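Backbone shapes recur. Consider a single case.
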Amino acid sequence: MKKTSNDIRNSRNIEQAAPCGPTAVVLLSGGLDSAVTAAIAKLRGFALHALSVNYGQRHGIELEAAKRVADSLNLCQHVVTTIDLRVFGGSALTANIPVPKSPDFSAMTQEIPVTYVPARNTVFLSLALAFAETISASDIFLGVNAVDFSGYPDCRPAFLECFERLANLATKAGVEGQRFTIHAPLIRMSKADIIREGTRLGVDFSLTHSCYDPTPAGLACGSCDSCTLRLRGFKEAGVTEPIAYSC
């Protein structure tokens, strides 16, 4: 049986989750959102299999963070797959395009930024769906957010609803009666609320990485869109940011 939101609020630590339960896949990027999503899914009693994607992004630091998070949550399995989206480019994360720095939050929400990777969440969810079908999992979790985000169109509820319909129409499991569910527990939460929830669940944010353009030493830049959202979230949550920044 899945735990309710009241069960989540009343639990003090992710270690109180059931040791096993229905199998689920969680997309794990190494950022704080996916870490909190995994902790929530674990607390709901799911046996979690994490999927991270090496898609040709600017750096591999987030994949190292994903491994740390997976290990800290004691997940059933952590799979890293590779698909090189650099062959298409079109994004500051997959092509030789500078990462914009936006210390002014209002400037971030005016248009879809160049850090948007074309069809990335569609690709990631498709891979997660394939993984889920092979391990007889009916549930897929991802940490997208439609409140404090950079304006990406593939972070909206409408997209997730459409993909869930696709999952149930275009798979052998779906045709034979298995019902896939796409879970985005953070979709309506602010970054501050996500950090508060993660803190309550015992997530170690020092293991995560969010920066689009870290230094060669791995320090977060502190001024890209992702860093700006993260720093503002910690400040509004009243929680100390545990990672170091270059500025």
In short: Strands lie at 23-27, 47-54, 77-82, 139-141, 181-183. Residues 106 and 202 are 31 Å apart (CA to CA). The longest strand covers residues 47-54.
